[in-house]
Amino acid sequence: MRASVLNLGCKVNFYDSEKIKKVIIQNGILLVEFKNIADIYIINTCSVTQMSDKKSRQMISRARSKNVNSIIIAMGCYAKLNKAYLLENQIADYVCSNIDELEKIIIDLKKNLEVYNHKDNNTDNKLNLKIKTKKRFRAFIKIQDGCNNFCSYCVIPYARGLPNDRDINEILDEVNYLCDNENIKEIVLTGINISSYKKLIDLIKELNNIKKLLRIRISSIEVNLLNDFFINKIKTFKKLCPHFHIPLQSGSNKILKSMNRKYDTDFFYDSIQKIKSIENISITTDIIVGFPDETDEDFNDTYNFIKKINFFKIHVFPYSQRKNTKAINFKNQVNESIKKYRSKKIIKLSSELSKNFIKSMLNKTFEVLIEENKNEFYFGYTDNYIKIKVKSNSLKINDIVKVRIGNIITEPPLEAEILRFF
Ligand code: SF4
Predict the structure, then answer these.
(1) Is the Cβ atom of 150 under 6 angstroms away from ligand 1?
(2) 222 CA to middle of ligand 1, Å?
(3) Would the CB of 151 count as within 6 Å of ligand 1?
(4) DSSP E strand stretches across 148-226
(5) Direct distance between the N- and C-terminal alpha carbons of the chain, in angstroms, rounded to an integer
(6) pLDDT per position in the chain (422 positions), as tens?
(7) Ligand 1 centre from 81 Cα, in Å?
(8) Mutate to test the pocket of ligand 1, among 12, 151, 162 (most ligand atoms within 8 A of CB)
(9) Is residue 154 in contact with ligand 1, taking CB distance under 6 Å?
(10) ω before 413 within 30° of 0 (cis)?
(11) According to CATH, where is 2.40.50.140 located in the chain?
(12) Mind giving me the DSSP string for 11-71?
């Protein structure tokens, strides 16, 4: 029997999909690439934008078209929000809301499913088909799921439910296993709303004590977490990387209010000034442009506020109407051409700010985790998330090397070149 897992969406989905693959392998089923014919297809879907919904539907029907007798199991946000539609129209055979439920179905299918007559069933071929797990050097670690912030544009709380934290010891066991058995040196703590993880400081403290673990990253935090206690505490954790992704979404207080975000620009500004006391810190963010009733003036407020904060990088999202959210019924929906124009302006600003930030890091020394090489060039990221390019014939993937930044490579993707490494 063969199965294939396709992941769509965020780091949390990626983490869940890796777990799903393990369940498949542990049940003695051959895990094959999505491009191959399988008896079972598991699509871990996303619903953050209309585009993600469309992609989720496309991938589900693509799986069906590969093997009409295959079993389609849909998971993730789009599947949960559209369960009835997918099952009633037999677009999917199962809609699962968690991995335990999936395992029960898999065990059941193993007993009863008529396996596709895979002509290429000889051993060599099976080995060729078997998914080659790529050597990884950074591991995403899911620490919580769910959110109850109910931002007016977001479907996630309806898809993933209320916040629930993973047990701290379970997380520590997982990280120790990865460091001991997979030589993982860097982890990224991920979740739907990490700021709601109750024991975050305790967790980072324990992780900071794991000898073989060299770097800890946090995928994203809400600005409301940045109080003096939190900032003073995290300064003591040497392995915690000085890069924080803190979604702003808008720089207009009018729009922040109608987004139901839990802060205004003054609070956001003051909190960022506090965390900027961390040396060489880089701050990235998310911005939604074209939210309902966003006027030119509101957009200019956002543009100027972004400059005032001086972010390292900005991810821009044109507002996407989502079913079941409050904002879908808001007046003065903004048309797509204005959203496009505003996105372009923020993307241009982001590239200028990134250049300025890297310029401010020139001649400074950083540790870089080497994660990729093309010919004689090696690539990796500094702890404050600057992408580094270095020419070398002695480096290896997963090395951590000390470097001094010498120069900026301006053509995209924005990278920094090494002056020297030690
Ligand atoms: S914090 Fe807001 S945007 Fe983020 S998952 Fe929760 S509701 Fe969605």
Answers:
(1) yes
(2) 9
(3) yes
(4) 164-165, 186-190, 215-218
(5) 51
(6) 899 999 999 999 999 999 999 999 999 999 999 999 999 999 999 999 999 999 999 999 999 999 998 999 999 999 999 999 999 999 999 999 999 999 999 999 988 766 655 555 555 555 555 555 556 778 999 999 999 999 999 999 999 999 999 999 999 999 999 999 988 999 999 999 999 999 999 999 999 999 999 999 999 999 999 999 999 999 999 999 999 999 999 999 999 999 999 999 999 999 999 999 999 999 999 999 999 999 999 999 999 999 999 999 999 999 999 998 999 999 999 999 999 999 999 999 999 999 999 999 988 999 999 988 888 888 999 999 999 888 888 888 888 888 888 766 655 545 565 545 55
(7) 16
(8) 151
(9) yes
(10) yes
(11) 365-421
(12) HHHHHHHHHHHHHHHHTTPEEB-TTS--SEEEEEE--SSHHHHHHHHHHHHHHHHH-TTSE
Please give the number of the atom of ligand 1 that sits closest to the Cα of 147.
Answer: 6
State whether the beta carbon of 86 lies less than 6 angstroms from ligand 1.
no
Q: What letter would DSSP give residue 240?
A: B
CATH superfamily of 365-421: Nucleic acid-binding proteins (2.40.50.140)
CB of 192 closer than 6 angstroms to any ligand 1 atom: yes
Give the Å distance between the CA of 149 and the centre of ligand 1. Answer: 6
CATH superfamily of 2-112: Methylthiotransferase, N-terminal domain (3.40.50.12160)
Distance 194 CA to ligand 1 centre (A): 10
Beta carbons within 10 angstroms of residue 53's beta carbon: 21
Spatial separation of the C-alpha atoms in residues 71 and 73, rounded to whole Å: 6
What are the residue ranges of CATH 3.30.750.200 in the chain?
243-360
The protein residue whose alpha carbon is closest to atom 2 in ligand 1 is 151
Q: In what order do the strands lie in the sheet with 40-45?
A: 30-31, 2-7, 40-45, 71-75, 94-95
Phi-psi region of 371 (alpha: psi -120 to 50; beta: other; left: phi over 0): alpha
> Residue 193: CB within 6 Å of ligand 1?
yes
Q: Full-prediction pTM beyond 0.85?
A: yes
The CB-side HSE value for 238 (13 A sphere, CA atoms) comes to 6
Q: Ligand 1 within 6 A of 149 CB?
A: yes
